[in-house]
Amino acid sequence: MSLLPYDQRDGVIWYNGEFVPWKDAKIHILTHGLHYASCVFEGQRIYDKKIFKLEEHTERLINSARLLGFALPYTADEINTACNEVVKRQNLIDGYVRPLAWRGSEMMGVSAQQNSIHMAIAAWEWGAYFDRTELLKGIRLTMSEWRRPAPDTSPCQSKAAGLYMICTLSKHEAEMKGYADALMLDYRGQVAEATGANIFFVKDGALHTPTPDCFLNGITRRTVIGLAQAHGIEVIERAIFPDELEGFEQCFLTGSAAEVTPVSEIGPTRFEVGAITKTLFEDYTNLVRGRLT
Ligand code: PMP
Description:
The protein is an alpha+beta fold. The protein folds into 2 domains: 6-125, Aminotransferase class 4, branched-chain amino acid transferase, N-terminal domain (D-amino Acid Aminotransferase, Chain A, domain 1, 2-Layer Sandwich), CATH 3.30.470.10; 132-288, D-amino Acid Aminotransferase, subunit A, domain 2 (D-amino Acid Aminotransferase, Chain A, domain 2), CATH 3.20.10. Helices cover 25% and strands 29% of the residues. The protein has helices at residues 32-35, 54-67, 76-89, 132-135, 165-176, 219-230, 275-288; strands at 12-15, 18-21, 39-41, 44-47, 50-51, 95-103, 117-125, 139-148, 181-186, 191-194, 198-203, 206-210, 235-238, 250-255, 259-266, 269-270. Strand 8, helix 5 and strand 9 (181-186) form a beta-alpha-beta unit. Helix 2 (54-67) packs across helix 3 (76-89) and helix 6 packs across helix 7 (275-288). Bound molecules: 4'-deoxy-4'-aminopyridoxal-5'-phosphate (PMP). 4'-deoxy-4'-aminopyridoxal-5'-phosphate (PMP) is lined by residues 43, 159, 167, 193, 196-198, 215-216, 218-221, 254-256.
């Protein structure tokens, strides 16, 4: 990974409807989005110059803002066009797009009724989310101390910056212990997701995945469910408890950044990178590259 900080790169960033030089895309220190986390974002990959599932990501961005009580000042079409233009101007073949929207500076307190809404889109070249050498042998997860909050304690279907506070804490703790990521349980003690990706398990030829009732129903998650069903693999969405982990044979994560990432271990429980995981890994790779319809 490049050591060049993200605010020191070259190129352009779409900022409130205009392209500005990368290093000039700044916010003022007194910005509501920074102090009170009134900020939502997206993350989508570019494969062969094309943004995968762009429309779905834009739709989620608009909905994330709505769940935080604000409306984006751009239509879905305008946002899609802007994302595509950013990719073109950045000359990207394979990379990542990060659109975000936040409340500005008109009011500085919990209340922000008068605040203007700002939006930016940046894109850069980006490889695998997890270490490539680890990818096919599976990554190691530990259990997080933090739990996904209940739907009545957070706008959990919003991809809101504030909801990542506990993800960063969990991921740092995992990395300090030598793991790649952490598995978070939810407020009921059920298996929820990793810090930036959904989770699947394989048992007796079927896929098991937690019902997304207090975390994001990921776009990749839904895509992979479709791929599995196309193979005739049964997909069971249900409550999964941590004491079931040792009964599963395979495990993998899904996410726009993580793609399909095999998991070899959660805490002391081991998994094999088996045939279903490999098939879905390959299918997803083919689909994003337009080699599978
Ligand atoms: N959960 C969390 C916490 C995430 O950050 C992500 C990545 N956006 C996902 C799940 C997976 O979502 P998607 O497949 O839409 O990228």
